[in-house]
Amino acid sequence: MIVMKFGGTSVGDARAIERVCAIVADRRRRDPVVVVSAVGGITNLLLEAAQKARERSREGIRLYERFCAVHAAILRDLGLPERLIERERVQLKEVLHGIYYLGELTPRSLDCVASFGERASARIVSARLAARGVPSRPFTGWEAGIVTGDEHGNASPLPRTYRAVRARLGRARAVPVVTGFIAKNARGDITTLGRGGSDFTAAIIGRGMEADEIQIWTDVTGIMTADPRVVPAARTIRRLSFTEAAELAYFGAKVLHPRTIEPAVERDIPVRILNTFRPASAGTLVVRRAARPRRLVRAIACKKNNILINLRSTRMLDAHGFLARIFEVFRHHAVPVDLIATSEVSVSVTVDGVAAPRLGRIIGDLGKICTAGTIDGRAIVCVVGDGIGDTPNIAAKVFGAVGRRGINVEMISQASSAMNISFLVRNQDADAVVRLLHRAFLERGR
Ligand code: ASP
Ligand code: MG
What is the distance between the alpha carbons of residues 376 and 197, in angstroms, rounded to a whole number? Predict the structure, then answer.
């Protein structure tokens, strides 16, 4: 069997949903379990409605009405009755009223509000499938057997989930359409699996069902060799490994979050990324071990707007525990560190530019341990490919190409996974660097 997950754009309006139903109907022989996101934009709308209700603002009511109007239009265009999501509409209204009257919004209530997007979309997609002659039944995440811990907003499945999924969905005759993103904890409170969590749901179900393949249907043709807005010659990557995909996910190829496919990785279930709007294209297949590429480099990724923090202390020489004290500061301020490079008396790290408001305090604390300076507006460029670590001379090729352009590299890091070389350049140089590396490694017939 296969799991087919459709994201928010794929169920964004009636036409898109028709397309989804046609794609599912075509693959009926493969015993699909369908997982759907909320209609595009609806999760954001719900989260905002909850905030507004807490502030006792009329805007909350307006957003609620918008939720109803968007779904009513889709139902109408699909020829489905409005009462199909009557229960969701009534319950959502009651929950928002509760928040309004109490003036209080807990993470638990927020998850409850957020759940209505997927609850509505799963009902709609399932009903439309049935109307087209594909017997189908909607399931919420909890009806499908997913039980999570208590981390509202970012919950993970408990181990018993997998067996429950198999028990609940294994015998289904009709095609199950399961809500992505949402589940319940052991006490029966609704939880969510983190933003973009429908992919996680798909992987959880794929593992529970021991699926042959997990398909992530989205609005791009897969993972690309570079950002096509920067590199017009960028191509879809046919096959890559889970680790390569994880590196790329971090660097803005936001197609797959590595955490969300962990259940698939654990069971070695291939994950295929496909385009709902171009269903014939093969997409990208992510597998445990991708065949050694003809080209050494799989992709060039880039993330702009990072802050470089340079730390220096002669006391570091021969001392132990120094790094621990530095990283304790980042832990204390809850700021993740991305790249690291060290020498005997200096450490350089980068953090995402979104940490800028907390930077003053971080530097203050670091200043008690060592000399600390920051430089902002930096881009991380990442050359990714499984074979990079055991290929001589590749660093020379990368930095030679960059250096010949007169572009200065400010920090270099090649981690133990040995499948990427990451380095830092100025924001304004980043696009040129990505283009020239793409040309050097991915365009010439080498
Ligand atoms: N609807 C949820 C979100 O917007 C989950 C998802 O789309 O995967 O984050
Ligand atoms: Mg998504």
Answer: 31
Per DSSP (E only), the strands in 86-154 are 136-139, 147-148
Q: Is 37 in the pocket of ligand 1 (CB under 6 A)?
A: yes
- Span 41-96, pLDDT tens digits: 999 999 999 999 999 999 999 999 999 999 999 999 999 999 999 999 999 999 99
Q: Indicate whether residue 45 lines ligand 1 (CB < 6 A).
A: no
Indicate the Cα dihedral angle 257, 263, 264, 267, nearest 10°: 150
What pLDDT sits at residue 292?
A: 67
Structural domain total, the chain: 2
Calculate how far, in angstroms, residue 235's C-alpha sits from the geometric centre of ligand 2: 21
Residue 337: give its domain's CATH number: 3.30.2130.10
Interval 148-180: pLDDT, tens = 999 999 999 999 999 999 999 998 889 999 999
Residue 171: both structure tokens together? 């015998």
> Distance between CA 205 and CA 36 in Å, rounded?
12
What's the pTM?
A: 0.88
Residue where one domain finishes, among candidates 173, 199, 218: 218
* Domain that includes residue 399, residue range: 299-443
